[in-house]
Amino acid sequence: MEGQSLVLGRGRVVRARQVGLAQRLRKGWRWYLFIAPNVVTFLVFILFSWVFLIYLSFHDWNLMGAKEFVGLDNYVRLAQDKVLRKALVNTFQYVLMFVAPVSAVSLGLASLVNQRLRGIYFFRAVYYLPVVTSIAVLALIWKYILIPRPDGIANYFLGLVGIPYQQWLVDIRLALPSITVMQIWSTMGYYMVLWLAGLQSIPEELYEAARIDGAGRWQLFRYVTVPMLRPTTIFILMIAMIGAFQMFGPPYMLTGGGPVYATTTMVYYIWLQAFNRYRMGYASTVSILLFAIILVASLIQRKYMRWSETIF
Amino acid sequence: MQSSNGRTLVTRRALIAGGLALGASTLAACAGGGTPQVVKETVVVTQEVEKVIKETVEVEKVVKETVVVEKVATPTPSAIAGSVKMWVFPLTENDMDALWNPLLSRFASDYPNIKVNIELLPWGGRREKMLTAFAAGEAPDIAYVNTDTLSLFGTNDVLLPLDDVIPKEAWDDLFGDLQRGLMWEGKRLMYPTLLIGTGYLYNKKLFQEIGWDPEKPPETWDDIRKLGADSKAKGYWLTTWNTINWGDCWVTPLWQAGGNVYSEDLTKVLLDTDPAYETLSFIVELFQNEWVPKEGAVGSEAEAQAVAAINYWIEGKSTLSGVGNPNITTNTKQQNPDIDFGICPTWKNKKQVQLGGGGCWGIFKSTKEPEAVQAWLLWLIEPEQQGFYGSVTKFAPPRKSAWDYWAAEPLPKKFVEVRLPYLAMNQDSSYFWQEGKTTCAPYFQAAVLGYQTVEEALKGAQQDLQAIVDEWNAKRKGR
Q1: Which pLDDT value is given to residue B80?
Q2: How far is the C-alpha of A185 from the C-alpha of B388, rounded, in Å?
Q3: Which of A258, A278, B75, B371 is the most interior residue, by most CB within 10 Å?
């Protein structure tokens, strides 16, 4: 078709495309039925929401009253909002603290549970358990663990190795790292399962061939496992990063964004604006900013990790 | 008919209409069961009488006569039909079986043609659910609403004013000045179903241990300070304190110090005042002397609604309980029967006062079944029903007459009785509640954790909250 467009006039190209589409529809309408649910879902829940989000960002709306057109007011507020700046910084810090550690820890865990040992399924289930545990329960458990006194559980273990007790969630410097540790612990089971799937898809013959060539355990990992896990790695880094940019549960359940905004993230701030200050338009504007940030970060990742060469 | 000064007492139209009404009411009475057709006619006549009377009412006698006519003409329960969707939030472990099913079955025998669908929703995200339901055009007909949403609902004109729906005697039957917290621009938009009057218990055994008379609970802020120091000296906490608990941990102590959060006309935030300074200084004192656990400085609203991670009171590690509703007495008995406790009076500083409030019912204007939903509400707030509601939920009924039906245990009842004379509501309890809480909490945290002085924290809170109030007032003027 592209080749045709070089030799045909513009109108004939369009007509040719239309004929092509009609032919395709006539021939393959049954197959389009199969993708119809996804297309409809996309149109209703993604595309419509997106258009509505953009529309709302130019309005003032509290969900109950009439929508009032405010032009670029929400975008001006965005530029002047000092709490939003703090939320932005917190979110980036969290992404940096979360993505690499959770990927590494869950890979280690996946390697451990990828053994043919008695009772290994039990351990896999145990490590996965926090993933399916409600954030409300996790928050209460971690509030207990992170008591800011010497008798707190975390502080007790620090005391065993001679480290003075910490204030954890009531310390501006430690609150976000504390939440990060909690999040790594509670989500590593999910990433473990992904790594495990990747590990188990590596053909055993490759390891056998490498062993015949004299490879040791490190060489097997470095020259067989790591390259073969590349698609999984890219996928995990991508979803971990997107998930980290959207972190909401712990500030909502555990800290209320405090102390002094130390754990206020972008999504928590969006929620606060939408359902506490009833500024749906402004919340939409912040959501657009967050989308732009995630898009740019994903494109950067795509460029440097060369997705297309490995996955598609 | 004319009075001696020549003014018209009753017009001819009124007399004719009154006669018609009387005739119609007699017909209705003769009909016994009150068929819908007869009632329909009666209503029409009543409206005519009301219209005429509005033009000519000057004599008390006439008003009395119309009241009689109105009562006779009210549609009988069996004549009202419809379906009502009601949103409620759980107050017991099994609200449907313990509370709503018995109420619904009683209601069904009184009003066989009204179907009430109770939708029991979790507390978490209740405002989000309400707002999004509105946006989707799926709002309930009636819902449990707290006064913290009054300004939101009032601004958007979504709640039906209840002044004309609920009879005067039911309003007059409410305790204290609760009505002040239900008013939006002179109209009452909610009717309370439960009384919120929180307070503290004290542990008599620990009192003895720290050298306090177990029959003399603390009353003043100075008593609290002394109790805090004595408790700490013996290794106990005074109580727990949460910077996100706007009502009990800010508004009440501020009122006790003689202040308010907002001016009465809702144009000024009053956090740059002496009472606010005194209050925040007191709270800072609680934290910095380690009379209360530091983890209370940081918390979320969701967490405050959930079970506390550590309950020092139940573990017998604090001399005062955390602040709680009347059911704190029964919960304590159930969770640690060994605690011998007494009930603290409302604390006193410049004033002895306590934030009152109520879980309320509100009817949404979007209802398609106004007659049915009003009948349901009027039935639900009857003293007998309200007393039953309080008996099951262990919250006190806000109507005085409902107390005759309130089968409460002695302790929760005493807990409320001790507080009743001091319960109050005003603009602070109904306006900018959520906004105030989340705007000020970071500043309160900065003060209690030592990142800011009390003056700096209050200055910041004042500035940010005033901006919200100004924005709201600007929009209000623009409407």
Answers
A1: 83
A2: 47
A3: A258
Listed by number, the residues of chain A in 156-185 with a beta carbon closer than 8 Å to a beta carbon of chain B are: 167, 169-170, 172, 175
B:425-454 residues touching chain A, CB 8 A cutoff? 434-435, 438, 441-443, 445-446, 449, 451
Q: Residues B186, B392: contact at Cβ < 8 Å?
A: no
pLDDT given for residue A119 in this prediction:
84
Are B257 and B275 in contact by the 8 Å Cβ rule? The answer is yes
pLDDT, tens digit, 9 for 90 and up, residues A252-299: 988 999 899 999 999 999 999 998 888 999 999 999 999 999 999 999
User: How confident is the model over A167-193, as a mean pLDDT?
Assistant: 95
Is the predicted pLDDT of residue B358 greater than 80, yes or no?
no
- pLDDT bucket at A100, cuts 50 / 70 / 90: very high
Residue from the list A62, A252, A259 with its beta carbon closest to the beta carbon of B302: A252
Confidence of residue B14 (pLDDT cuts 50, 70, 90): very low
How would you classify the pairing of strands B341-343 and B82-88?
unpaired
**Does the beta carbon of A48 lie under 8 angstroms from any beta carbon of chain B?**
no
Distance CA B111, CA B434 (A): 38
Tell me which chain B residues have a C-beta less than 8 angstroms from the C-beta of A170.
294-295, 297-298, 449
Query: CB distance A256–B307 less than 8 Å?
Result: no
- CATH 1.10.3720.10 boundaries in chain A: 80-310
* pLDDT one-digit tens code per residue, B248-259: 999 999 999 999
DSSP-derived secondary structure for A16-57: HHHHHHHHHHHHHHHHHHHHHHHHHHIIIIIIHHHHHHHHHT
Whether B294 contacts chain A with CB within 8 A: yes
Q: Would you state the CATH architecture of domain A80-310?
A: Orthogonal Bundle (1.10)
The interface pTM score, or ipTM, of the predicted complex is 0.84
Question: Read out DSSP for chain A?
Answer: -HHHHHHS-HHHHHHHHHHHHHHHHHHHHHHHHHHHHHHHHIIIIIIHHHHHHHHHTTEE--SSS--EE-TTHHHHHHHH-HHHHHHHHHHHHHHHHHHHHHHHHHHHHHHHHTS--TTHHHHHHHHHGGGGS-HHHHHHHHHHHT-SSTTSHHHHHHHHTTPPP--GGGSTTTHHHHHHHHHHHHHHHHHHHHHHHHHHTS-HHHHHHHHHTT--HHHHIIIIIHHHTHHHHHHHHHHHHHHHHT--HHIIIIITT-STTTT--HHHHHHHHHHTS--HHHHHHHHHHHHHHHHHHHHHHHHHHTHHHHT-
